Amino acid sequence: MFKQFSNAQFSRDAQWITTATGVLAISFLGLQSLLKVLYVLRLGYGLEYLGIFSATGAIAYMAMSLPSGAAGSYFGTRRAMFAGGVITMISIAITPLVEYLPTGLGLIWPLAAQVLLSSGWALFNVNLVPALMATTTPQNRSSAYALNSVLRGFGGFVGTLAGGLLPSLFVYLWGYNLATPAPYRLGLWVAAGLALFALIPLLLVEETPRLTTATQSQANVAFPVWFIGLLIFHVYFAQIGIAVCQTFCNAYMDTDLHLSPAVIGVITGAGQFAAMLAPLLAPRLTARYGNAWLLTMTTVGSVISLLPLVFVGHWLSVGIGGLGITALNAMWMPVLQVYQMELVHARWRSLAYGIISMAMSCTFASAGFFGGHIAARWGYQNLFLLSLGLCGLGVLMMWIINRWNQVLVKTPVLSGD
Q1: Model confidence, pTM
Q2: Mean pLDDT, range 48-74, rounded to an integer
């Protein structure tokens, strides 16, 4: 399993980019992702507000996806990623300040912080994909994207476990109560401090050459409208399972199953651990079956993983289902990135991935906005059942893309790597 990684020779810049991704993942995907949900609930807000809170961040990410790609093209991907890391760090730090503001700002401040947080993450994440593309070769590209996903999963795993334990640690040290916001506030500040260390590797990355207007005009290649259009639908539906799980599984375990933060952290961390290892399988599977096949099968697996969440109301079902969804999504993501990047000319890569990122964030926005209302009125199981059906449409869309790929994309347009 590890042979393809040991044989791959990654450039120095690719290594620094991957390191920065792993460190920021501990803070963003692990610590703050878990703690902010529990923090908002401890502030006294209900599931409807939690859904709006999540949807606000997703909408902000969606709105910033195209500007983030444009910023990377104009200023350079390294500068855009660094700016995104700074904004992400500041946003995590200011979220708990809501406790010290006038009452009238109580509902607005967390939403505003979410907008800023998602904007920073969009700047970093959207430019990460073309930056890694520019620092790899066709021979080691699949391994590089898979390794980047592995470190994201490892960071999320470590951060989630730490996020589950930190509130109890602060209770032990300073006598706080887990039912109050204080221990979760301190945990979010720890996450912000850790995000600072993700900026250091980015300072060591050389800026990639930008596509000038003259260079772009030489490449008389039309934007692949049909291919990207169909891929948008696949991405939107395929991401429903992970969007609902990330938004509501922690709240489900907290409010309905009445689990402690430490147990929630362990269960969520198990999924993050699987996410850390799952991408290791991707290069070998794509070499044998192709990217499109693996995109299809990981989406089928997500549908199957939702079944325990729909039919079994137990913490074990959340653990098994969440683990499957998280691991499969971790495998799906780098495969999608390589699949899209290799079939789109360098002139259109930032724009194309910005559009794909919009589709992903639209999924999370829909899950947050509608999911909170569905869970509050009809229960979590009905929310998971709806997600299962929509995720199945993602399988159908990839089948359509596979069926008509020779018609829509007759010749893959590579960048001359």
Answers
A1: 0.74
A2: 84
